[in-house]
Write a structure and sequence with these properties.
It is a single chain. By secondary structure, the protein is mostly helical. Helices cover 75% and strands 0% of the residues.
Protein backbone atom coordinates (compact mmCIF):
# COMPACT_ATOMS: atom_id res chain seq x y z
CA UNK A 1 0.00 0.00 0.00
CA UNK A 2 1.39 3.41 -0.96
CA UNK A 3 1.77 6.38 1.37
CA UNK A 4 -1.12 8.14 -0.37
CA UNK A 5 -3.49 5.16 -0.12
CA UNK A 6 -3.25 4.84 3.67
CA UNK A 7 -4.50 8.38 4.50
CA UNK A 8 -7.29 7.92 1.95
CA UNK A 9 -8.31 4.60 3.48
CA UNK A 10 -8.26 6.14 6.95
CA UNK A 11 -10.34 9.11 5.79
CA UNK A 12 -12.96 6.83 4.20
CA UNK A 13 -13.05 4.64 7.32
CA UNK A 14 -13.50 7.67 9.55
CA UNK A 15 -16.29 8.98 7.31
CA UNK A 16 -18.13 5.64 7.56
CA UNK A 17 -17.78 5.76 11.36
CA UNK A 18 -19.04 9.34 11.54
CA UNK A 19 -21.95 8.76 9.16
CA UNK A 20 -23.10 5.71 11.19
CA UNK A 21 -24.13 3.87 8.03
CA UNK A 22 -25.19 0.79 10.01
CA UNK A 23 -28.17 2.78 11.32
CA UNK A 24 -29.49 3.66 7.85
CA UNK A 25 -32.51 1.29 8.19
CA UNK A 26 -34.03 3.92 10.51
CA UNK A 27 -34.03 6.28 7.50
CA UNK A 28 -34.74 3.70 4.81
CA UNK A 29 -37.93 2.42 6.46
CA UNK A 30 -39.91 5.70 6.52
CA UNK A 31 -38.75 6.66 3.02
CA UNK A 32 -39.75 3.25 1.65
CA UNK A 33 -43.16 3.44 3.32
CA UNK A 34 -43.77 7.01 2.16
CA UNK A 35 -42.79 6.30 -1.44
CA UNK A 36 -44.88 3.11 -1.41
CA UNK A 37 -47.94 5.10 -0.32
CA UNK A 38 -47.28 7.66 -3.03
CA UNK A 39 -46.90 4.89 -5.61
CA UNK A 40 -50.19 3.36 -4.52
CA UNK A 41 -51.85 6.73 -5.14
CA UNK A 42 -50.51 7.05 -8.69
CA UNK A 43 -47.29 7.30 -10.66
CA UNK A 44 -44.16 8.43 -8.83
CA UNK A 45 -41.91 11.04 -10.44
CA UNK A 46 -38.54 9.46 -9.82
CA UNK A 47 -36.53 12.67 -10.14
CA UNK A 48 -38.41 14.24 -7.24
CA UNK A 49 -38.31 10.95 -5.33
CA UNK A 50 -34.52 10.89 -5.74
CA UNK A 51 -34.29 14.49 -4.58
CA UNK A 52 -36.38 13.61 -1.52
CA UNK A 53 -33.95 10.80 -0.67
CA UNK A 54 -31.00 13.20 -1.03
CA UNK A 55 -32.84 15.76 1.12
CA UNK A 56 -33.44 13.28 3.93
CA UNK A 57 -30.04 11.58 3.78
CA UNK A 58 -28.19 14.90 3.73
CA UNK A 59 -29.78 15.96 7.00
CA UNK A 60 -29.71 12.53 8.65
CA UNK A 61 -26.04 11.85 7.91
CA UNK A 62 -25.15 15.47 8.68
CA UNK A 63 -26.92 15.17 12.03
CA UNK A 64 -24.86 12.08 12.83
CA UNK A 65 -21.69 14.11 12.35
CA UNK A 66 -23.07 17.03 14.36
CA UNK A 67 -24.03 14.61 17.17
CA UNK A 68 -20.50 13.23 17.12
CA UNK A 69 -19.13 16.76 17.29
CA UNK A 70 -21.43 18.01 20.05
CA UNK A 71 -21.19 14.91 22.26
CA UNK A 72 -17.44 14.81 21.70
CA UNK A 73 -16.67 18.36 22.77
CA UNK A 74 -18.87 17.89 25.86
CA UNK A 75 -16.99 14.75 26.86
CA UNK A 76 -20.07 12.52 26.67
CA UNK A 77 -18.29 10.00 24.41
CA UNK A 78 -15.09 9.76 26.45
CA UNK A 79 -16.12 6.47 28.11
CA UNK A 80 -18.91 5.22 25.83
CA UNK A 81 -19.57 1.48 25.56
CA UNK A 82 -20.89 1.55 22.02
CA UNK A 83 -19.22 1.98 18.63
CA UNK A 84 -16.33 4.43 18.33
CA UNK A 85 -17.10 8.11 17.88
CA UNK A 86 -14.66 10.28 15.95
CA UNK A 87 -14.24 13.22 18.32
CA UNK A 88 -14.52 11.26 21.55
CA UNK A 89 -11.91 8.73 20.41
CA UNK A 90 -9.57 11.36 19.01
CA UNK A 91 -9.79 9.93 15.49
CA UNK A 92 -10.65 13.34 14.06
CA UNK A 93 -10.54 16.95 15.17
CA UNK A 94 -13.86 18.51 16.21
CA UNK A 95 -13.59 21.12 13.45
CA UNK A 96 -13.21 18.42 10.80
CA UNK A 97 -16.26 16.49 12.04
CA UNK A 98 -18.29 19.69 12.18
CA UNK A 99 -17.26 20.51 8.62
CA UNK A 100 -18.47 17.10 7.37
CA UNK A 101 -21.84 17.73 9.02
CA UNK A 102 -22.09 21.21 7.53
CA UNK A 103 -21.35 19.93 4.00
CA UNK A 104 -24.02 17.24 4.30
CA UNK A 105 -26.50 19.76 5.67
CA UNK A 106 -25.73 21.97 2.69
CA UNK A 107 -26.54 19.10 0.32
CA UNK A 108 -29.79 18.37 2.15
CA UNK A 109 -30.75 22.06 2.19
CA UNK A 110 -30.02 22.40 -1.54
CA UNK A 111 -32.21 19.39 -2.34
CA UNK A 112 -34.95 20.84 -0.12
CA UNK A 113 -34.70 24.22 -1.87
CA UNK A 114 -34.99 22.60 -5.31
CA UNK A 115 -38.05 20.66 -4.18
CA UNK A 116 -39.54 23.87 -2.76
CA UNK A 117 -39.09 25.65 -6.10
CA UNK A 118 -40.34 22.78 -8.25
CA UNK A 119 -43.01 21.24 -6.03
CA UNK A 120 -44.23 23.51 -3.23
CA UNK A 121 -42.90 26.40 -1.15
CA UNK A 122 -44.27 24.61 1.91
CA UNK A 123 -41.16 22.43 1.70
CA UNK A 124 -39.00 25.36 2.78
CA UNK A 125 -40.30 25.37 6.38
CA UNK A 126 -40.01 21.56 6.37
CA UNK A 127 -36.36 21.91 5.36
CA UNK A 128 -35.79 24.46 8.11
CA UNK A 129 -37.58 22.26 10.66
CA UNK A 130 -35.50 19.21 9.80
CA UNK A 131 -32.24 21.15 9.89
CA UNK A 132 -32.91 22.86 13.22
CA UNK A 133 -34.26 19.66 14.74
CA UNK A 134 -31.12 17.76 13.80
CA UNK A 135 -28.72 20.39 15.10
CA UNK A 136 -30.42 21.12 18.41
CA UNK A 137 -30.75 17.42 19.24
CA UNK A 138 -27.28 17.55 20.80
CA UNK A 139 -26.06 20.99 19.66
CA UNK A 140 -26.52 24.46 21.08
CA UNK A 141 -26.55 25.53 24.71
CA UNK A 142 -29.67 23.54 25.66
CA UNK A 143 -29.91 20.43 23.44
CA UNK A 144 -33.27 18.73 23.75
CA UNK A 145 -31.65 15.29 23.42
CA UNK A 146 -30.13 15.96 26.85
CA UNK A 147 -33.55 16.62 28.34
CA UNK A 148 -35.29 13.32 27.70
CA UNK A 149 -36.93 14.37 24.42
CA UNK A 150 -34.97 12.16 22.04
CA UNK A 151 -37.62 9.47 21.60
CA UNK A 152 -40.35 12.02 20.87
CA UNK A 153 -38.17 13.72 18.26
CA UNK A 154 -37.15 10.50 16.52
CA UNK A 155 -40.79 9.44 16.33
CA UNK A 156 -41.71 12.77 14.75
CA UNK A 157 -38.80 12.95 12.31
CA UNK A 158 -38.11 9.30 11.41
CA UNK A 159 -41.79 8.52 11.60
CA UNK A 160 -44.17 11.33 10.70
CA UNK A 161 -41.93 13.74 8.77
CA UNK A 162 -39.93 11.21 6.73
CA UNK A 163 -43.04 9.21 5.78
CA UNK A 164 -45.26 12.19 5.00
CA UNK A 165 -42.67 14.26 3.10
CA UNK A 166 -42.30 11.87 0.12
CA UNK A 167 -46.08 11.47 0.06
CA UNK A 168 -46.53 15.26 -0.04
CA UNK A 169 -43.85 15.70 -2.70
CA UNK A 170 -45.54 13.15 -4.96
CA UNK A 171 -49.24 13.83 -4.30
CA UNK A 172 -49.41 17.41 -3.00
CA UNK A 173 -51.17 16.35 0.19
CA UNK A 174 -50.84 14.35 3.41
CA UNK A 175 -53.76 11.90 3.73
CA UNK A 176 -54.67 10.20 6.96
CA UNK A 177 -53.21 6.95 5.62
CA UNK A 178 -49.76 8.57 5.57
CA UNK A 179 -50.04 9.56 9.24
CA UNK A 180 -51.25 6.05 10.11
CA UNK A 181 -48.40 4.45 8.16
CA UNK A 182 -45.86 6.62 9.96
CA UNK A 183 -46.76 5.26 13.40
CA UNK A 184 -45.24 1.74 13.09
CA UNK A 185 -41.89 2.90 11.68
CA UNK A 186 -41.82 5.79 14.13
CA UNK A 187 -42.27 3.39 17.05
CA UNK A 188 -39.51 1.10 15.78
CA UNK A 189 -37.23 4.13 15.40
CA UNK A 190 -38.00 4.89 19.05
CA UNK A 191 -37.15 1.28 19.93
CA UNK A 192 -33.76 1.71 18.25
CA UNK A 193 -32.97 4.88 20.19
CA UNK A 194 -34.26 3.32 23.41
CA UNK A 195 -31.81 0.43 23.01
CA UNK A 196 -28.98 2.87 22.36
CA UNK A 197 -29.84 4.97 25.40
CA UNK A 198 -30.30 1.89 27.61
CA UNK A 199 -26.80 0.75 26.66
CA UNK A 200 -25.34 4.17 27.41
CA UNK A 201 -27.43 4.83 30.52
CA UNK A 202 -24.57 4.73 33.10
CA UNK A 203 -22.13 6.83 31.06
CA UNK A 204 -24.81 9.31 29.96
CA UNK A 205 -25.91 9.82 33.56
CA UNK A 206 -22.32 10.36 34.68
CA UNK A 207 -21.74 12.89 31.87
CA UNK A 208 -24.93 14.83 32.61
CA UNK A 209 -26.73 13.70 29.44
CA UNK A 210 -30.26 13.22 30.77
CA UNK A 211 -31.86 10.95 28.18
CA UNK A 212 -35.29 9.42 28.67
CA UNK A 213 -33.54 6.20 29.76
CA UNK A 214 -31.74 8.13 32.50
CA UNK A 215 -35.06 9.62 33.62
CA UNK A 216 -36.94 6.31 33.58
CA UNK A 217 -34.23 3.99 34.86
CA UNK A 218 -33.24 0.65 33.33
CA UNK A 219 -36.38 -1.30 34.26
CA UNK A 220 -38.93 1.09 32.79
CA UNK A 221 -36.71 1.71 29.75
CA UNK A 222 -36.81 -2.01 28.98
CA UNK A 223 -40.60 -1.92 29.22
CA UNK A 224 -40.62 1.08 26.89
CA UNK A 225 -38.68 -0.94 24.32
CA UNK A 226 -41.23 -3.76 24.49
CA UNK A 227 -44.06 -1.24 24.13
CA UNK A 228 -42.47 0.32 21.03
CA UNK A 229 -41.88 -3.00 19.28
CA UNK A 230 -45.32 -4.40 20.16
CA UNK A 231 -46.97 -1.07 19.30
CA UNK A 232 -45.35 -1.09 15.87
CA UNK A 233 -46.91 -4.45 15.00
CA UNK A 234 -50.31 -3.58 16.52
CA UNK A 235 -50.55 -0.23 14.72
CA UNK A 236 -49.56 -1.87 11.43
CA UNK A 237 -52.17 -4.58 11.89
CA UNK A 238 -54.84 -1.93 12.45
CA UNK A 239 -54.01 -0.58 8.99
CA UNK A 240 -54.85 -4.01 7.57
CA UNK A 241 -58.59 -3.26 7.93
CA UNK A 242 -58.24 -0.90 4.97
CA UNK A 243 -55.06 -2.32 3.38
CA UNK A 244 -55.05 -6.11 3.97
CA UNK A 245 -51.63 -6.70 2.40
CA UNK A 246 -50.03 -4.81 5.28
CA UNK A 247 -50.40 -8.12 7.14
CA UNK A 248 -47.10 -8.95 5.45
CA UNK A 249 -45.39 -7.21 8.39
CA UNK A 250 -46.07 -10.35 10.42
CA UNK A 251 -43.15 -11.79 8.51
CA UNK A 252 -40.92 -9.50 10.57
CA UNK A 253 -41.96 -11.08 13.89
CA UNK A 254 -39.04 -13.57 13.97
CA UNK A 255 -36.62 -10.64 13.64
CA UNK A 256 -38.04 -9.12 16.84
CA UNK A 257 -37.38 -12.17 19.01
CA UNK A 258 -33.63 -11.81 19.54
CA UNK A 259 -33.53 -8.10 20.47
CA UNK A 260 -36.56 -8.49 22.74
CA UNK A 261 -34.87 -11.37 24.56
CA UNK A 262 -31.70 -9.31 25.00
CA UNK A 263 -33.50 -6.24 26.30
CA UNK A 264 -36.00 -8.07 28.52
CA UNK A 265 -33.25 -10.41 29.71
CA UNK A 266 -31.54 -7.44 31.39
CA UNK A 267 -28.51 -7.29 29.13
CA UNK A 268 -26.54 -4.11 29.68
CA UNK A 269 -23.62 -2.13 28.32
CA UNK A 270 -21.85 -3.73 25.38
CA UNK A 271 -24.15 -6.77 25.66
CA UNK A 272 -26.85 -4.58 24.11
CA UNK A 273 -24.90 -3.88 20.92
CA UNK A 274 -26.27 -7.06 19.22
CA UNK A 275 -29.78 -6.00 20.28
CA UNK A 276 -29.17 -2.61 18.67
CA UNK A 277 -27.95 -4.25 15.45
CA UNK A 278 -30.91 -6.63 15.35
CA UNK A 279 -33.35 -3.77 15.95
CA UNK A 280 -31.84 -2.13 12.85
CA UNK A 281 -32.42 -5.39 10.98
CA UNK A 282 -36.00 -5.50 12.28
CA UNK A 283 -36.56 -1.98 10.95
CA UNK A 284 -35.14 -2.96 7.56
CA UNK A 285 -37.37 -6.03 7.21
CA UNK A 286 -40.46 -4.41 8.73
CA UNK A 287 -40.16 -1.31 6.54
CA UNK A 288 -39.71 -3.41 3.40
CA UNK A 289 -42.72 -5.60 4.17
CA UNK A 290 -44.91 -2.64 5.13
CA UNK A 291 -43.96 -0.81 1.94
CA UNK A 292 -44.64 -3.92 -0.16
CA UNK A 293 -48.03 -4.37 1.49
CA UNK A 294 -48.96 -0.74 0.81
CA UNK A 295 -48.08 -1.08 -2.88
CA UNK A 296 -50.04 -4.32 -3.26
Amino acid sequence: MTVHQEPLRTAVHNWVIGARLKTLPVTYAPLAVGLALAHASGAVEWWSAALTVVFVLGFVLGTNFFNDYSDGIRGVDDHRQGPTRMVGSGRAAPRQVFRHGAVLYGIGALAGAVLAVTVSWWLLPVTLLVGLGGWFYTGGSRPYGYRGLGEISIFLYHGVVFVCTPVYVQTGGVPGSALAASVPVGLLACALLTTNNLRDLPTDAAAGKITLAVRLGAGRTRRLYVFCVAGAFVSALLMAFSRPWVLLVLGAVPFAVFPLRRVVGKAGGRELIPALEHTCLLLLVFGTLQATGLIL
